[in-house]
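User: quick one
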Amino acid sequence: MASNIERDHVTGTETTGHEWDGLKELNTPLPKWWLYTWIACTIWALVMFVLYPAIPYGKSYFHGLIGFSTRDEVAADVKAVQAQRNVMMSKVGSASFDDIRKNPELLAAAQTAGRLTFANNCQPCHGAGGSGQVGYPALAAGAWIWGGKLEDIQQTLTYGIRSGLDQARDSQMPKFGADGLLKPAEIQQVADYVETAYFGLKDKDATPASIKAGEALYATNCAACHGDKGEGNREVGAPRLASKVHLNGGTRESIVKQVITPHLGVMPNWNTRLDAATIKSVAIYVHDLGGGE
Amino acid sequence: MERGEVAMTHIDKTKPEIPSTEEEGFMQYFEDHKKVYPKTVYGKVRTLKWLVLGLCLSVYYALPWVRWDRGPGQPNQALLLDIYDRRFYIFNLEFWPQDIYYLTGLLIMAALGLFLVTSLFGRIWCGFACPQTVWTDLFMLVERLIEGDRNERMRRDQQKTTLDTVWRKGLKHIIWIGIAFWTGGAWIMYYLDAPTIVGRFWHGQAGSAVYGFTFLFTATTYLLAGWAREQVCTYMCPWPRFQSAMLDEQSFIVTYRSWRGETRGHLKAQKNNTSGIQYGDCIDCGGCITACPTGVDIREGPQLPCIGCGLCIDACDMAMKKVGRPTGLIAWDTLERQAAKANGLHLPTHFFRARTIIYFAAMSVAMTIMVIALTNRPLVNLSVLQDRAPLFVRIADGSIRNGYTIKITNKTHEEAVFHLGLAGLDDATMALSDRHDDRLRDLHLSVGPDQVGSFRILLMAPDHGSSTTFDFALRNETTNEHTSYHAVFLGPGSAASERHNASEGVH
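Assistant: Done. Structure below.
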């Protein structure tokens, strides 16, 4: 192999004797310590190969002699963080809302827990940031049906709405249309009144006479729960009608539909799925979305 | 050997023999380490090298101990790179992690400076200021003081081991390790308060990282300056390779003036010249080779292992003075001038060339930008992140609300109250999200010393249909330093919010 060694006339260096299509390689030798360092590194690598997980075989792998596993490390880290979190959350659980507000550390823990729990559990219906959708209240808007104080939110979260529990928020609206309590023409009159008086809609078809008839029908049928001026009643969970934000959409169709066969939403009780401290945290998060009272 | 005496021995003038006859196979591609025994020289270059060495080492060892008053509760070390607290203190400058681009600027300036100096004067960084050169020089001084000069050291290594050799070598290594330890320890002091860490170190209270890094830098200093030496420059360092591209025929590099020196010949041969050879000034004494810390022969021209330290200049001048010939046979000169001299021409120097002017201009631009950026560095910083989900909320009274997370950086050393106001959006009110009933036109936000305060702000405004731009105006109520952030208040009329309405089905 090294038979064609010759001296290169330009550099005065000899060649290695190798030749590839006329290209020759100069032999500028590395020092031997370089070679020894390379050998030492190779041995080091082989030792690491044996000590640490390195060789895959099929669905499993060689675990190495010292039993190192990054997955175990992650599991241990997660456990440590969980333990740390438990300390904070037990404090959140036992403190009052006022005390949590006063303690920045507790507040930060509660806000974080609330934000994450909301995203995993509440967001599908109530929207990111509590923006809501038709039939699901916009929590950030401040148009509360059952109350927007921290304690109210906590209560709603714990026992739910129409969840079947005794403590649950519960209310019924009669099926004025389906059960024949109001005739179809009367329903149109009520709708004419509600959309112009409370929803702020401008409807050319709503005549003053019709609105007046609707007002009378509203006073006898609706005002008991929704209030004389459409202000709603949180005691019975009757939504405020005189608002710019509406649970079932702010259209005339939604009014008519709701009077004929009311949509009565259900919110599950969360006390079986989340612990008390987490529910408290979600209450704080929801309250701080901007609508809280 | 007496001072100034010209060494005539141990010079191998011939090219290395072809080794293939003896070393067959794989090992022919590797060569034995040839130990270099640099000889002491005296002269202007050597004196300059001692001065640079003294300056560099003094700065390195003493700088961590320089104190600088920054007020109570703040570190009083002039140069402190506090990794743990993420603050760099450099005299009266303080850098936060987000200032890291100043480091980029500094590195760009350093790189351009190095390019400029290299294209002007060759590898003077390598030969004078590089830590590898400085510490190797220091270690060689220790070696010389204990084991003697070149010839004595060579004799020792060739002789049988005697008690004298053992204690001298032992003492040398002890001193080397001592210097290395001091060097490694000083490195740590740049990252932690020097007096504190020294105390903790000797009481065994420093962290494992401190002991680990001290050991690491002690070991590398000892190995690189004591054992590896020129091997670092020749085989490990990328800089010699870069420099080949930066030098040109007008760069002042250490050169042998062959037009004057050749034909070389021993003094004896020159005196008894009977063969009619036109001898030059070079008396082929080998002084330049024995003085070289990397073991090269400068007479072969510019070459990779030459670090441009110029010690061969001193060695040659010593020899020239001894034989009564003019000095400067080896000197800093340009290849262009050498070539011209060989033809009897004298060329002027070319310090101003396209290459040096461009390097200098680029370096000046980088420096100007750095200085301007540094002097105008704000001590207050405001960043605003607008809520993306939802983009806006229509609240019960029909008005629109946007949410923002704002971060206020307080780089002063006192707790500060910041005044946050709105420029534009005249009918809007502002509230903190956890006290959103207090709707105000401006907020007073408190941020601790040296900290970043994070606040969630809600902005409420009547529904104007479309989006509006406005500014958050922030002012430190104590120092009056102010800044602003241009932001958008999103409403239902904007394109983004129409998509929002369509997808959410609201209203």
